[in-house]
User: Fold these one by one.
Assistant:
Number 1:
Amino acid sequence: NVGLGKTHLLHAVCHDARKHAPDIAIRFLSCEEFVNGFISAIEKGTLPDFQNQYRTVDMLIIDDVQFLREREQSQEEFFHTFNALYNNRRQIVLTSDSAPQDLAKLEERLISRFKWGLVTRLEAPSYETRIAIVQKKARIRGIELPDGVAELISEHVKTNIRELEGALTIIYANAQIEGRAITLESARR
């Protein structure tokens, strides 16, 4: 689901790949950027340049591939790009808000290819992980949290990391507006 760190994980993949192979050619973009670039290439008559841009990399990383839904020509282009990279033994990394088999309105041949690789699900963070995330975000932002505040936030926000950050921001902003330090009582309010 949203806010669980898929894009963050993709950035980590890029950094790790560059660490192990500094000269690796990586193309990282959102599916929306891919679709818009494809449309633009058709309009400008630069489709071969577009294809070369994506089919010759060592690693193609596409975030939110579910946005290919209902875009028949873009799906066709991505299918051929996927095949070109796969046949040349290149790395393809994709994220989506659903498992491949649950990507409605996506061509079956794309779904089949998505299943060729490692498919993993990112779950909402556990209570302990949520506490650690809140504490780290507070530390990074220079926010002093008294005992119990990270736990309180983590008890009430269970779905995703963005909402954890949002709760921390609200608590901090309210303390700043009131001109007071954060307390467990102010966090409860």
Number 2:
Amino acid sequence: DKTGTLTEGRPAVTAIRPTAGFSEDDLLRLAASLERGSEHPLADAIVRAANELGMPLAQPSEFDSPVGKGVVGQVDGRRLVLGSGKFLHELGIDTRSLDADADALLGDGATAIFMAVDGQAAAIFAIADPIKATTPDAVIALKAEGVRLVMMTGDNRTTALAVARKLGIDEVEAEVLPQDKAAVVEKFRSEGRKVAMAGDGVNDAAALAAAEVGIAMGAGSDVAIESAGVTLLKG
């Protein structure tokens, strides 16, 4: 798993790209007000960015968080959507005005979170999660042992490939929904492979349980630790 395993798991907002007629501060306050209802690491990054600027957050209403897609709700009487470009498209929101910015951010390894206000594309939040200082050496050591490495993530493929490229990992399973992570493990097992899965989050629990060896990060979620055969006491 990428986030929290290969990376620090503490993403931060690195840029906000608003469309015409919207201000960065306004959008950050609205987004953070909505995201305070979510437990996702990307939501936490947006809330922390607003808190660091001392922004007063409003109470969201009609909050919903479709798994692996994003969040929707009302803040200050405005209908907000935050999530992947695909999620906004599903809701009939045109994101073409943001696509060029998104491609540039994704190519640099950031995750692009699209935001819409009252059905109109309003901004992209670039959120980047630093690679752990120990990860490059770990990857080199595993490859030297003849272990075939595959990075798995729910992230957009372009972002995932940028991170994998920095680490020298050639195989990537990207845009994997939480409920499908175990299926990736089963796919490799059905090919006759012996699979070890390393992960840290609630989303990884089923995959950790499905692998011959599940390896949980000690700094991760209780359910991941419970599902794994091995727990690394430090991140």
